[in-house]
Description:
In chain A, a hairpin with a 5-residue loop joins β11 and β12. Chain A folds into 2 domains: about 210 residues, Bacterial phosphonate metabolism protein PhnH (Rossmann fold); about 50 residues, no CATH class. In chain A, α1 crosses α2. Helices cover about 25% and strands about 15% of the residues of chain A. Chain A is α/β, with parallel strands linked by helices. Chain B is α+β, with helices and mostly antiparallel strands. Chain B folds into 2 domains: about 80 residues, no CATH class; about 200 residues, no CATH class. In chain B, α4 crosses α5. The longest helix of chain B has 24 residues. In chain B, about 35% of the residues are buried. The N terminus of chain B is likely disordered. At the A-B interface, α1, α3, α4 and β11 of A face α1, α2, α3, α4 and α5 of B.
Amino acid sequence: MNSNYELPLEDAGYSFGFLDEYAKKEVRRCILKAIAIPGYQTPYASREMPMGRGFGTGGLQITLSLIGVQDTLKVIDQGSDDSVNAVNLRQFVQLTCPGVDVTEKTEEASLLQSRHRIPEKPLTEAQILILQVPYPDALVVVEASEARRKIMHAEADYSRLLVKLYEDIVHFDEITISHRYPTRINGHYVIDPSPIPRWDVPKLHQSKALVLLGAGREKKIYAVPPYTLAEPLVFDDIAFRVEDFRDATGVRHACRCCGSTVSFLDEFSNDQGMVAYQCSDSAYCEEQQQTGSAA
Amino acid sequence: MSYVAIKGGKAAIDGAAAATDYMRCMNAVDEPIKLSVIEDQLRLLTSRVVSEGGLYHPKLAALALKQFHGDTLEAAFALRAYRSTKPRLLETPLQDTSKMRCIRRISSAFKDIPGGQMLGATFDYALRLLRLDLANEDPAAFRLVAKNFLSNTPEADLPDSFPKVLDALRAEGLLPPVGAIREQAFDITRDSLVFPVPRSAALATMARAETGSLLAMAYSNMRGYGDVHPTVAELRVGYLPVMLPHPVTGELMEAGEVLMTECEVVAMYESGNAGDMPVFTLGYGACFGHNEVKAISMAILDRALQKGMRDGPDNPSEDPEFVLLHVDGVDSMGFASHYKMPHYVTFQSDMDRLRTTQGKVRKSGETA
């Protein structure tokens, strides 16, 4: 091709937060818009990050746009700080944001980036929770076209979603949506709350912390501002139900490490082939083990 | 055991990185590949990466190909991520492709075209018989190929530029006149696609789309899920001078040149506005690097999408949302890869729903 130029041989010298300042400013503007219109999917020019689309690039762009040297960051994936993807994202932030502190303790973090979980420990007004989002639109299960979905959202027309829930009840006598449970924010927009389990959905309601949701591949940012209504879509006579961790006899499984019976559990087969249960939130589990205060 | 329940995520990632680099270097008798070798001898691979990466930087593209073991999706992805760190400083004015220094230009519409057909470097009529003599190529013979080629080609045979075939058709009234540019070009790196999108957004999206994805969509239209029936009015490959305004005087100056492939297809005619003469319709494709299949696919899809935007889509390839949201290599490969990440919180939740439902079925079976 045309190669009469030299490649700079030193490292590429990335700026604080990897993204250029214009990009970060644009993301912050979109965040403000998202907060001003709770639950509305604000389009933004999502940048390519040096990790795969689907690995948390939307959450990461929010984190990098907000983070400063005074911040303390916690990154979790599946509830764990040590999950490969959480480690990867945290290392990247440490690499590109020198001076930023990281922590595994939920209460110490000013920014928390998470995939698939909200920490068990209640968050405070001083904290921002950033959730990674693969599918930003709850309507995608009933309408493939984004243009049509946009109109449905504007009209708060969620009838087809409600029909889907109703059909579930007719077919299975149960609502079959396990995670990504459609949740109405501030009485209007229904959001996909990211693939958190139903267990975590009630934590969005009147949350003290600001919750920001970032979909990098789908190029959307939306928010659940503090002290805002967040109501899972249900019927008056069918209650919303979180995951049930009771055995056949009705006894609640406990975490094999800390003994907690009030946390979301991961289930797996141990080396003896027995089914074991363990807290999904590793920081919570560790604290319970240390203080011995498990319920 | 699950790989989250145990500690050691960092050690696992470090180990994977070491194993990956080992795979690149495991044959100790090999020479490390020089970037210039990738750029020159694997020029079509490099072309693909600069085009899909949306960044004209052949050297970095060659580096990315080396770093990612030849994976075009990963290499294009690395260029895109690099691009994210750079601000947009300038918008170029329209570039005139009639100024292109062509290395190849053909038309399948006419036997002869102004300036003449120039086949140039192409595999189109090559016999796909494996050349086993390349297996152990002699460096001296290798150098001789270039030397002989250049000494046998008189300089006078190489005109600086060629007229555009479409201009002749336009002069005859067979094509619609070029309209005034009404809108600012849509910059897909600064705005996300909110449908309906202007044609410039569609063209920009396709210009950096993944070649295979674009080809599959276009092929569906060619085979019958659509009716573009294109004729390649002109396909040209060459070096396009990039004109930028001088920072002080504002006068246009040549900042460099980029290798590009451009394709214009002429398709079925349609009646214009009431009273106007019917004219042929056009599809346009262009991309960085030498990638003819991509430029042709893009031109066909451009034509198909124009129809879809105007009359509504009758086929997937005419649906702007369907085409434009599914042809980006970085997006699609990232999402396909993300399924390899842990999903057991959501799977736990799935099991809860299935067990509850199974329990209800069981109970209703017992009572029946």
